[in-house]
């Protein structure tokens, strides 16, 4: 009887301890891996979110940028981290949907990253250096076809969404525009401003400063309606590239095996923040559309996004290649 009593008390204490741990998470700073360069629009948004959430969580979110290689370096770091609730990561269309279709021998598996939730969609734009002297998509197409292999284009590396748009464009236009990899939208914008790169497709938020400089011009935006930030820029459909199926988004994940209570707490706080009017107004100014989800809804969305990725890769006539570090 005494043995049974001691066992029962042991179970009660264990249950009480787990409950306390769930209630007191987090107890130390949380690392947030961002697989893109500092200064890019996603980095700016997540740093703002980290500042807002620190008093709510009672602990800081420490941003760690691991840019380049279509998000592979950051995803690898996330997947290989301890699943203790103190590492989370920003994930996006490449890390979760496109990379497994574009590369063999990836150093991570998407299912090694537990979904926490989608955060937002990117409003993307087609941008050109003003030195290129084109004002419309039609003029860009004509110039690219007249000089099939003379133009270049800023990407996030092979297999990134900017790179896939380039492949789609070359396939549709019968051109040979050359890709140049950068570690984020900020560096790509600087490259267009400096004349190092001539064309790209990136999130609009990365290029607002470049557009203000007059050294870069926007030819189209990906949203169904014109962006309030760029009311004079046509939509992709208006510009004649409305059949491009790719859409950019960002969310959060964590190493597989992360405690459910940690995932639930992070999800709850981010969803609450991204639904607040003040923070949504901030997101509007970054040219992104707030779209937070629960972990369960994110899983459903990822299934749909992977089907869209398969379609785009087929249209772009792209074959999977072996991943090599530093590609």
Short description:
This protein has helices spanning 2-24, 41-57, 72-79, 93-102, 137-146, 161-173, 185-193, 208-213, 236-239, 260-274, 277-285, 295-315; strands spanning 30-34, 61-65, 87-92, 103-104, 113-122, 124-129, 152-155, 178-181, 199-203, 216-221, 249-255, 288-290, 321-322.
Proportion of residues in β-strands: 15-25%
| Number of helices, counting only DSSP H or I runs of 4 residues or more | 12
Q: What is the CATH level 1 assignment of the largest domain?
A: Alpha Beta
Question: How many β strands by DSSP?
Answer: 13
Secondary-structure-based class equals: alpha/beta
Shape: globular
CATH architecture of the largest domain: 3-Layer(aba) Sandwich
- Count up the domains: 2
Rg, alpha carbons: 22 Å
Question: Sheet with the most strands?
Answer: 6 strands, mixed
CATH superfamily (homologous) name of the largest domain = Bordetella uptake gene, domain 1
How far from one another are the termini? 66 Å
> Which sequence of strands runs across the widest sheet?
2-1-3-11-5-12
Order of helices and strands: HEHEHEHEEEHEHEHEHEHEHHEHE
- Poorly predicted runs of 5 or more residues: 1-20
Q: What is the helical fraction, as a range of percent?
A: 40-55%
* CATH structural fold name of the largest domain: D-Maltodextrin-Binding Protein, domain 2
**What is the mean pLDDT?**
91
């Amino acid at each position: 009887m005494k043995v049974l009593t001691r066992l029962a008390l042991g179970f009660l204490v264990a249950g009480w301890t787990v409950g306390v741990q769930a209630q007191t998470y987090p107890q130390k700073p949380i690392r947030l891996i961002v697989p893109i360069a500092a200064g890019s629009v996603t980095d700016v948004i997540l740093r703002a979110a980290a500042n807002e959430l620190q008093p709510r969580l009672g602990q800081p979110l420490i941003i760690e940028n691991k840019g380049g290689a279509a998000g592979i370096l950051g995803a690898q770091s996330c997947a290989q981290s301890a699943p203790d609730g103190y590492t989370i990561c920003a994930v996006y269309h490449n890390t979760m949907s496109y990379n497994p279709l574009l590369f063999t021998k990836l150093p991570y598996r998407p299912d090694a990253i537990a979904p926490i939730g989608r955060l937002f969609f990117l409003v993307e734009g087609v941008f050109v250096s003003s030195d290129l002297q084109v004002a419309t998509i039609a003029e860009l197409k004509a110039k690219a076809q007249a000089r099939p292999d003379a133009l270049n284009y800023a990407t996030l590396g092979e297999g990134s969404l900017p790179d896939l748009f380039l492949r789609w464009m070359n396939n549709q236009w019968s051109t040979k525009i050359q890709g140049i990899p950068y570690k984020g939208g900020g560096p790509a914008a600087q490259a267009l401003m400096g004349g190092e790169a001539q064309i790209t497709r990136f999130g609009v938020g990365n290029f607002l400063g470049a557009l203000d400089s007059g050294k870069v011009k926007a030819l189209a935006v990906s949203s169904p309606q014109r962006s309030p930030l760029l009311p004079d820029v046509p939509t992709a459909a208006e510009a004649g590239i409305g059949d491009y199926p790719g859409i950019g988004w960002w969310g959060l994940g964590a190493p597989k095996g992360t405690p459910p209570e940690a995932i639930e707490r992070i999800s709850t706080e981010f969803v609450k923040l991204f639904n607040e009017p003040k923070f949504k107004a901030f997101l509007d100014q970054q040219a992104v559309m707030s779209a937070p989800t629960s972990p369960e809804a994110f899983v459903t969305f990822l299934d749909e996004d992977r089907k869209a990725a398969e379609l785009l890769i087929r249209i772009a006539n792209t074959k999977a290649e072996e991943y090599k570090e530093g590609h």
